[in-house]
Amino acid sequence: MSKLQTTPNQTYYAILEALNHLIEVVAKLRSPDGGCPWDLAQTPQTLIPYIIEEAYEVVHAIRSEDQNAIAEELGDLLLQVVLQAQIADDYGHFSLKEVAQGITEKLIRRHPHVFGNVTVKDREEVGQNWEKIKAQEKGETPEMAQLLSRKLAHYNRTLPPLMASSKISIKAAKAGFEWENIDGVWDKFSEELAEFKEALETDNQEHQQSELGDLLFTIINLARWYGLDASEALSGTNERFIQRLSKMETFADRPLTDYSLEELENLWQQAKKKLNQ
């Protein structure tokens, strides 16, 4: 018996039934005959913001450890996968079958220690084999696959900018692109801050954007030196800002837009004090 063969049980069939129902519902939503106008108007490109949003909501739910929320958000993300596949099928490109088959074959191919006769010592060797197989799939030589620029370009293509910068910073430092001490990083920060201020005095927005990016990248390097996660830090700040704003709204007796800047500052301080108690 193959390692992939298992005995179907009631749970297995229930899962297949639920997935099939979801596929049927999405197909109905996309049907020109009685479907939903909104769903029919969507393209792979218009759905990109929703994919990103749903992925982040899954992450937020996992961090909250709310199992009901996790299940719900995973469902929303699964909808995006099924909807993308349905749109592709509508245009004759591919279907959900090819999506499922592709990832299944990839998992089997990249786990020869599970589905083949390869023996591995530890998790590190699993990772090394994974990268070798991945390079072979892309037709790359081992030397090409190890090029630092290729690895960093992958992060830039596949991760949100802040996370990509953190990854790039870590990998570059391991390759020797590193300051001798923290003073060097602070000097670089001062340099980039001055250059950003100078750029703001010009009318060249492209130059301003470039200098802002350099400044942000240096801040991410500072975070790395102090063992801090820039993405987590910014996410925490966003959360605190929203909490304080929400508390301000409970104190307010009219829309916040009707308050003066000084009144808003007073409300902000009240909210901050209340939340810190």
Descriptive overview:
The chain is mainly alpha-helical. Among the domains are: 10-109, MazG-like (Helix Hairpins, Orthogonal Bundle), CATH 1.10.287; 232-276. It has 14 helices and no strands.
What's the total number of strands?
Answer: 0
H-E order:
HHHHHHHHHHHHHH
Stated plainly, the CATH topology of the domain at 10-109 is called Helix Hairpins
CATH superfamily of the domain at 10-109: MazG-like
Structural class: mainly alpha
Overall average residue pLDDT: 93
Shape: globular
Describe this structure in a few short sentences.
This protein has 277 residues and is mainly α. Helix content is 74%, strand content 0%.
Task: Please supply descriptive tags for the structure shown above.
single chain; 0% strand; Helix Hairpins; 277 residues; mainly alpha
Describe the secondary structure blueprint for this structure:
Layout lengths: L9 H20 L7 H5 L6 H17 L2 H24 L5 H14 L2 H4 L7 H15 L4 H4 L2 H11 L2 H14 L7 H19 L4 H21 L4 H22 L9 H16 L1
